[in-house]
Amino acid sequence: MPTRRAVTGRSREPRARFAEELRSLRTRRGESLRQLGERLGWDWSLFGKMEKGETLGGPEVVQALDTHYGTPGLLLALWELAINDQTQFRERYRRYMALEAQATSLWHFAVSVLPGLLQTPGYAREVLAAGGLKGDELEQQVQARMGRRALLEGDDAPPFRTILSEAVLRTPLRDAGEWRAQLEYVGEAAERENVVVQVLPFRAGFHGLMNADVMFLRAPEGRTVAYVESGYQGALLEETAAVERLQLTYDATRDLALSPADSLKALLRTLEEARCDPPT
User: E strands of the chain, at which residues?
Assistant: First the structure.
């Protein structure tokens, strides 16, 4: 399958950047708009409007383009940025999204919320709604997040490890059925060869990542960057010394976590408890 390609566009404005990438990918394929429309089953004029920046299309067509061009998650990540007002995104977060799309491996720690890459639609909808989104904007963001899960699927999917604080498993959704579906999805993901899930039990006590979610991304050229979220703020760390210090903290926290096998057992126990809970 095609290798992951670095995001190296000229425009720094999300909508223009998205349109540029679409034009560039089609041109390199040597396809006309009509040929693209025939192969993907959409009216060719839609792709023309998307390449001119007149419309962004929906997540379904963008996912189809990602599959067609062999760029899993890249176009969807750019689309997710483009559908939002650019003033809502700091440059560091835009850069993080691009880096995630091309990462060759990912390591994550969660304080209280599952990583987006492992969320079901029901879980994502409740989390995003709690953050203030609603209506069409909420549904667009849910669909975009679901599309990003493709990053962990397929033969060339990068290795992904997440350490979940026990609080993540002890914070259920309001809808018991959606919560069970979410736990089942994490359990299924944990059985993939490229995914490792570990649980950090409460009994582990204090540790260095108690107040922050962290994602480490290894770039194709071998360097590692980290994105740290704390409260309502996020920061992209690219300076080598800072990233290495944080990695040491991550390693120490991982030493306190359950093994992948025991973590899966803990997850299954939580799922069993959820199945036994009486409906409300």
Answer: 105-110, 160-165, 195-200, 213-218, 224-230, 233-237
